[in-house]
Specification:
Length: 144
């Protein structure tokens, strides 16, 4: 059974959301997992830059999914349903408002929710969805 961790940020800052995403990806990658990060199109470039620069003196090797992707890097970023099911990642970090259709292929899922009314409501909807699927759920409140 897959595990879903909800990370509830007590901030509305997109930079903090990106920073937490990078920290999670770094931790999970060092545990030996491959990661797929699902984003909305407007966030793609920002996350790409953040993964290259979030740690002084190092970076998180990643690739943006496209028709030419080889899926050779340990971290992949995608913004369409088209690429999510084609990689061999075992951890999904979801930064979108909905549960991706290919969610069942992952061992672990991380949902990051920031502190806006709309984000929290969409997060609750995703929580109920995973609960109905009998996933193991954990909630982590992140104060920054």
């Amino acid at each position: 059974m897959s595990q879903v961790n909800f990370y509830i940020l007590n901030t509305r800052s997109r930079q903090e959301k990106l920073r937490l995403t990078c920290q999670l990806a770094d931790k999970v990658w060092h545990q030996g997992y491959r990661i797929y990060i699902q984003v909305d199109t407007y966030m793609l470039e920002q996350l790409d830059v953040a993964l290259w620069t979030f740690k002084k003196g190092s970076f998180l090797a990643h690739d943006i999914c496209s028709e030419n992707s080889t899926f050779a890097t340990p971290i992949l970023i995608g913004h369409t349903e088209q690429y999510g099911g084609k990689n061999n990642a075992n951890v999904l970090i979801n930064l979108t408002a909905t549960v991706p259709t290919f969610f069942k292929q992952f061992e672990r899922i991380a949902e990051i929710v920031d502190d806006t009314d709309s984000e929290r409501e969409m997060g609750r909807t995703r929580y109920r969805f995973y609960q109905e699927q009998n996933f193991t759920l954990q909630v982590h409140n992140i104060t920054r």
